[in-house]
């Protein structure tokens, strides 16, 4: 069933065109990387603020309100371009364990990003950041670095992409 | 330097023990790549947020100067991490990189121009930030810088197409 979806995706003519015309394939990579930098840079700054080593002179909530829209915009660019690249050789990615690991880490990182965004106004009300907040922000930061590493391990270990 | 002395330098660099260990170890290369990309996330992420703020976006929460102050230190920490990772990636295949037109465009033209503009923006930020409304020149500088970093990523992605 899943492998049939993979076959259907990679035989779709739009997907084939996007992945095989040189400048379009390069464009997908550019969007994927640029989106990732904006996504990870934005959430990392909020995490570092919560941990207590960035922008201490101003409110964490304000910084987060400013950066979270860019985080979501970066995620959207990263996800859409990533999906098209995945779809191009979906049947090979679907059974690949390194790719699974990358997707689980990304999913966990997004969940932690949502937790930080959701909890931040409450954390910011207390005079000092609660220790649980710092812990969650640290995990979020490590997960994003892990997601980047896992992304590099997919071509290194599986030869895909 | 002539073409051949650049290639000689590239060959020398990629035969240094640290470069060989990045190039030949199964685990080191992805780690070094991840270092480069983590640094770039901090650098590009904080730079883009500042540029968008100069262009007038997202300023309802805090002024561009407040944002700039919050991001400044980590902006440059990200830069240092990116340069460290980038240098190690470069040294692993230096002789190939020094003759690649996309790499030469990236390192010889786009990054210097983008960096100079970045530093000009940072030195002007305080002055611009004291005005009630961002001057027109700040908006232009922010948009041009954003465009330049997109071009840097474009050149970087194009490197394998010329290799």
Explain what the structure shows.
The complex is a heterodimer of chains A (161) and B (163). Helices cover 85% and strands 0% of the residues of chain A. Chain A has helices at residues 2-10, 13-20, 22-51, 60-88, 90-93, 97-125, 131-158. The mean pLDDT of chain A is 95. Chain A is mainly alpha-helical and 161 residues long. Chain B contains seven helices and no strands. Chain B has one domain (3-162). The chains are: A mainly alpha (161), B mainly alpha (163). At the A-B interface, helix 3, helix 4 and helix 7 of A face helix 3, helix 4 and helix 7 of B.
H/I helix tally of chain B: 7
Poorly predicted ranges of chain B (pLDDT <50, ≥5 residues)? none
What's the shape of chain B? elongated
Order of helices and strands of chain A: HHHHHHH
Break the fold down into its secondary structure elements and pairings.
The complex is a heterodimer of chains A (161) and B (163).
Chain A (H helix, E strand, L loop, with lengths): L1 H9 L2 H8 L1 H30 L8 H29 L1 H4 L3 H29 L5 H28 L3
Helix pairs in contact in A: 2-3, 2-4, 3-4, 3-7, 4-6, 6-7
Chain B lengths: L2 H12 L2 H8 L3 H27 L9 H29 L1 H4 L3 H29 L6 H27 L1
Helix pairs in contact in B: 2-4, 3-4, 3-7, 6-7
């Amino acid at each position: 069933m899943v492998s049939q979806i993979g076959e259907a995706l990679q035989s779709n003519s739009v997907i084939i065109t996007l992945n095989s015309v040189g400048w379009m394939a390069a464009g997908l990579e550019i969007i994927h990387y640029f989106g990732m930098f904006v996504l990870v840079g934005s959430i990392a700054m909020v995490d570092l603020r919560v941990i207590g080593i960035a922008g201490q002179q101003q409110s964490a909530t304000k910084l987060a309100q400013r950066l979270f829209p860019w985080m979501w915009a970066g995620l959207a660019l990263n996800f859409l371009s990533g999906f098209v690249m995945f779809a191009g050789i979906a049947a090979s990615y679907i059974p690949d364990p390194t790719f699974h690991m990358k997707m689980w880490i990304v999913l966990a990182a997004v969940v932690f990003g949502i937790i930080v965004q959701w909890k931040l106004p409450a954390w910011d009300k207390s005079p000092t950041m609660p220790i649980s907040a710092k812990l969650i922000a640290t995990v979020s930061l490590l997960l994003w670095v892990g997601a980047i590493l896992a992304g590099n391990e997919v071509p290194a270990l599986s030869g895909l992409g | 330097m002539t073409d051949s002395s650049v290639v000689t330098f590239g060959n020398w660099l990629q035969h240094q023990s640290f470069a060989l260990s990045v190039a030949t170890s199964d685990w080191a290369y992805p780690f070094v790549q991840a270092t480069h990309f983590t640094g770039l996330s901090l650098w590009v992420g904080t730079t883009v947020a500042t540029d968008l703020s100069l262009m007038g976006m997202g300023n309802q929460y805090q002024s561009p100067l407040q944002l700039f102050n919050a991001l400044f230190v980590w902006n440059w920490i990200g830069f240092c991490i990116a340069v460290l990772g980038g240098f190690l990636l470069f040294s692993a295949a230096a002789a190939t990189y020094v003759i690649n037109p996309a790499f030469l465009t990236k390192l010889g033209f786009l990054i210097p121009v983008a960096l100079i503009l970045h530093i000009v923006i940072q030195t002007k930020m305080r002055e611009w930030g004291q005005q009630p409304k961002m001057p027109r020149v700040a908006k232009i500088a922010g948009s041009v810088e954003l465009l330049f970093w997109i071009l840097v990523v474009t050149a970087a992605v194009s490197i394998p197409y010329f290799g």
